[in-house]
């Protein structure tokens, strides 16, 4: 790499406000505390000593069952969904060069949701594995449609068209989902919370069904991190550094579909995590994609876990969909970015 290119990469990465090891330690410490709180808090609080006892010496008491069989898988799902959506959002903003990009805004999450709902209502699919596969297909079709719209018109691919096209596609897909639910009223109540983003009923079967896709998305995200940073300097510069844009963009798209589709299959279309988290990550670690993805995985997991805790306790014994809480965080970020900066050259 030439000295000029190396200097450009360092400038693009930006300066960190805190040292990397300290950021990682703080993030992981926060995750451990949030996960433990998720096991202890809910409609009824469980003492910390009883939480530890349930994990280490399960005896099928009511409290042990609540911790080990209900709250533990739910917490794991929250961690996976938050990390996946955070990473997917960062990848979308990097490859689309648009700070408003997010799986929920661009219709990818709703494409997965439509495929899942249609599979349950029309095809009567009840297998977790098949529903996850349908979610992947729906997310992939939605992503392909968005890319196709971005390529329309003069000048080739236009990042500015993505948000408008994505919002329109998301609205259309949501209308189709609602139409299916009206046709099958028995599914309406069950789907109502899920469509708002909910972790109610999350279990180990769902985790097992989605792990292959989450691993695929994570590995691809790690593989494209450095090439995406170079592409941020411009395709001509990246080409001079040996980076081929199209394969990197294709691999990034597959990673986004895998991560976003699996997240929807686990918890429904949780809103705006992929928008808000990358902005917080960039404020901490700069625009270098590698550190940014690590920060996004930690911050995304932390946001969803904390949101789920609040969703459980604020109206206990009733629960709010976790998507309501993430939207409360995400909407101000969306408005701020839309007002100040929507496109990154």
What do you see in this structure?
The protein has 345 residues and is mainly α. The protein has one domain (37-340): ABC transporter involved in vitamin B12 uptake, BtuC (Orthogonal Bundle). 76% of the residues lie in helices and 0% in strands. It starts with a helix and ends in a 5-residue tail after the last helix. The mean pLDDT is 84.
Keywords:
single chain; 345 residues; mainly alpha; ABC transporter involved in vitamin B12 uptake, BtuC; 14 helices; globular
Describe, in short, the structure shown.
The protein has 345 residues and is an all-alpha fold. The protein has 14 helices and no strands.
Q: Report the helical percentage.
A: over 70%
Q: Describe the biggest sheet?
A: none
What's the total helix number? Answer: 14
Strand count: 0
CATH first level: which class?
A: Mainly Alpha
CATH topology: ABC transporter involved in vitamin B12 uptake, BtuC
CATH superfamily: ABC transporter involved in vitamin B12 uptake, BtuC
């Amino acid at each position: 790499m030439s000295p000029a290119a190396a200097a450009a990469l360092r400038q693009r990465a930006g300066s960190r406000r805190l040292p990397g090891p300290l950021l990682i330690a703080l993030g992981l410490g926060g995750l451990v505390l949030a996960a433990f709180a998720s096991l202890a808090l809910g409609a009824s609080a469980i003492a910390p000593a009883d939480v530890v006892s349930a994990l280490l010496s399960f005896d099928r008491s009511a409290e042990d069952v609540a911790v080990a069989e209900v709250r533990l898988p739910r917490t794991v799902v929250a961690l996976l969904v938050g990390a996946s959506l955070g990473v997917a959002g960062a990848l979308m903003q990097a490859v689309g060069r648009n700070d408003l990009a997010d799986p929920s805004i661009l219709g990818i999450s709703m494409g997965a949701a439509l495929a899942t709902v249609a599979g349950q209502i029309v095809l009567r699919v009840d297998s977790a594995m098949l529903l996850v596969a349908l979610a992947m297909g729906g997310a992939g079709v939605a992503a392909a449609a968005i890319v196709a719209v971005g390529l329309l018109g003069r000048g080739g691919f236009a990042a500015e068209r993505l948000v408008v096209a994505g919002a329109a596609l998301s609205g259309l897909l949501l209308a189709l989902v609602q139409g299916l639910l009206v046709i099958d009223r028995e599914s309406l109540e069950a789907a109502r919370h899920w469509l708002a983003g909910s972790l109610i009923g999350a279990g180990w079967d769902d985790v097992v069904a989605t792990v292959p896709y989450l691993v695929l998305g994570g590995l691809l995200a790690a593989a494209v991190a450095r090439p995406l940073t170079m592409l941020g300097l411009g395709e001509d510069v990246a080409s001079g550094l040996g980076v081929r844009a199209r394969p990197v963009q294709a691999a990034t798209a597959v990673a986004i579909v895998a991560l976003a589709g699996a997240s929807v299959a686990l918890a429904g279309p949780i809103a705006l995590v992929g928008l808000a988290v990358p902005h917080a990550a960039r404020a901490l670690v700069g625009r270098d994609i590698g550190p940014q993805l690590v920060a996004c995985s930690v911050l995304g997991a932390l946001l969803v876990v904390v949101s789920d805790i609040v969703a459980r306790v604020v109206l206990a014994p009733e629960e709010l969909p976790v998507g309501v809480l993430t939207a409360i965080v995400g909407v101000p970020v969306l408005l701020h970015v839309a007002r100040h900066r929507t496109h990154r050259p």
